[in-house]
Design goal:
This protein is an alpha+beta fold. It contains 13 helices and 25 strands. A hairpin with a 5-residue loop joins strand 19 and strand 20. The chain binds adenosine-5'-triphosphate.
Length: 539
């Protein structure tokens, strides 16, 4: 037996192996000898493992005193994934050092062949505090204080490329200064890509009530990104303000059906000041690119904090939120890129369209800025063949760098077997660094624009496109509400004018073949072939 105490811990061969892996790697600085740990009571069991109240025997300098700690015992992972997990933990520990707003991570240990994270014990959580209050909600000033504490913490973790993915009031711990900090720092994130024992657990990276649509199946409906945390945080904000958990009383399956399939949003209480209602509604946009980032949420709550402390909502009603742009993009979507003098630009296509409405600026160069604020105003664009620069609203332009603009369909020049070759460009920096969403990847792929080429995709019959390029296709004529997901790399465009035999060939496929007008000047049809592949045809 390795340990004796309140919890009888068997000696596991796996612990020794784990210890050897740790001892030969970078993680040795964080290693805690399991013999110095005593598990007392289990206080939680979630999708990632168990949480235990424990005691840790201190060092000699500490006179060998026992401290209360909390141990997160992760589900067992296969041996070949162990080093990957430990490297990710090492990265997490290093990044969290000195970060305010994160619970104090004390070290890594192993028990029963499972990796354990040892962290400081805190007296309670925001969730506990809410449970003690009448109606389950916090006072407005407390809620605001915690929301601002937490948004600052998330922002700091995001700046270190860590996603939280499990934001909920019971994971917001309270320190001795009544500041809210994170208890579950990045655990679902480091477990991404590491198979868990049960496929059901693997499907859920988070707690269903707080999960964004893309979080349910990140490699199919994803990727997950910073704005995935905006959804989870907005769910927590709603709960802190109302005392009601989003999707309260619903099963995981019912929540999946509502959030992912029916695209429903959690309820937002009425009577909120417009800027808060606006930012929360933004957080519940289905496509994460349309959601605000944590910095936007923080800005809104900070700007209203003083008014809340001096009496309540009443003064806030006069603050009017920004309007949605006429092109169908949210202000949050548009604010993610700003224009500078010298940028190449072109007219932005309307949201969810592959065709430009107008091409006032087929291509031009920004020669002057008239921004009234960071995300509003006009720019002067020099267009070839027009004498004077055009004065154009920023929201109607997109930046083109090395021939690419965010939102473009792109194809990898060299295929990578881990994901579809065709994806959607999410961002391109002026230095050519890109982030692309591909089916098959849980997070954005970072790389260089030189690895990409443009990919043309027809959008007839496609209801909408997920942020990784996954096509959501409905078959007209089918009575069920079902839709199908298709990999853009496997959808083929065929033109009848260049392939006259095509009409004849598919005439007999009554059940699988539909045609209707899709745009004013174009008729298309989509066939579901016997092997389940889709064939997209333009007539
Ligand atoms: N370091 C800590 N100090 C004190 N309490 C903690 C600490 N970490 C977690 N807790 C509390 O322990 C309880 C269980 O935590 P746990 O993280 O296992 O929650 P869960 O909902 O069961 O699972 P998960 O968070 O993984 O979804 C929660 O009420 C949480 O507030």
């Amino acid at each position: 037996m390795a340990l004796k105490g309140a919890y009888e811990c068997e000696h596991f061969e796996g612990d020794n192996r784990l210890r050897t892996v740790v001892a030969t790697s970078k993680q040795k600085t964080w290693w805690i000898n399991p013999a110095t740990l005593k598990l007392r009571h289990r206080i939680g069991r979630g999708p990632f493992g168990e949480t235990w109240l424990a005691t840790l025997r201190g060092s000699r300098e500490d006179y060998g005193e026992y401290h209360e700690v909390v141990v997160k015992m992760l589900h067992p992972v296969k041996e070949d994934h162990m080093r990957v997990l430990l490297d990710k933990l090492d990265d997490l520990f290093s990044k969290c050092q000195g970060v305010e707003g994160v619970c104090w991570l004390q070290g890594i240990s192993a028990m029963n062949g499972k990796v354990c994270l040892v962290m400081k014990f805190y007296e309670g959580s925001v969730g506990d505090k809410m449970a003690r209050h009448k109606g389950g909600k916090l006072s407005l000033s407390n809620a605001f204080r915690y929301i601002i504490n937490l948004a600052q913490g998330i922002l700091e973790l995001h700046s270190k490329e860590i996603l939280l993915l499990n934001l909920k009031p019971f994971n917001f711990l309270l320190d001795e200064y009544n500041q809210a900090i994170f208890g579950d720092v990045g655990i679902p994130f480091i477990l991404l890509g590491i198979p868990l024992p049960s496929s059901d657990l693997a499907r859920r990276i988070g707690t269903p009530n707080y999960m964004a649509p893309e979080q349910w199946q990140p490699e199919v409906r994803g990727p997950i990104s910073f704005e995935t945390d905006s959804w989870g945080f907005a769910c927590s904000i709603v709960e802190m303000l109302t005392g009601v958990q989003p999707w309260c009383g619903k099963s995981a399956h019912e929540i999946y059906d509502a959030v992912v399939r029916k695209q429903k949003k959690p309820c937002i209480p009425s009577g909120l000041p417009p800027p808060i209602e606006n930012v929360l509604l933004g957080c519940f946009e289905y496509d994460f690119r349309s959601r605000p980032l944590m910095t936007d949420i923080l800005r809104v709550f900070k700007s209203l904090q003083n008014a809340v402390h001096s009496g309540g909502w009443t003064d806030l009603e006069s603050i009017i939120p920004a309007e949605k742009s006429s092109s169908g993009y949210t202000e949050w979507f548009l604010s993610k890129d700003d224009l500078q003098v010298g940028d190449m630009v072109r007219s932005r296509k309307p949201a969810n369209s592959c065709k430009p409405d107008n091409m006032d600026v087929p291509e031009g160069t920004v020669v002057g800025l008239e921004h009234s604020t960071e995300r509003d105003g006009f720019v002067l664009v020099r267009v070839h063949g027009i004498h004077d620069p055009l004065r154009v609203h920023v929201s109607s332009l997109e930046r083109v760098t090395f021939g690419f603009a965010a939102g473009d369909w792109v194809r990898m020049k060299e295929e990578d077997k881990r994901h579809s070759p065709v994806g959607i460009l999410h961002s391109i920096h002026r230095d050519g660094n890109v982030a692309v969403g591909f089916i098959g990847l849980e997070t954005l792929r970072k790389g260089k624009s030189s690895e990409l080429q443009m990919a043309g995709i027809l959008q007839y019959w496609i209801c909408w496109v997920l942020p990784n390029g996954c096509l959501v296709v409905k078959f007209p004529g089918r009575i069920e509400e079902d839709y199908f997901l298709a990999d853009p790399a496997e959808v083929e465009a065929v033109t009848f004018s260049t392939c006259p035999g095509m009409v004849k060939k598919y005439q007999h496929l009554e059940d699988h073949h539909w045609a209707c007008e899709t745009t004013s000047d174009c008729v298309g049809s989509l066939c579901c072939q016997g092997n389940g592949d889709f064939l997209l045809e333009e007539m």
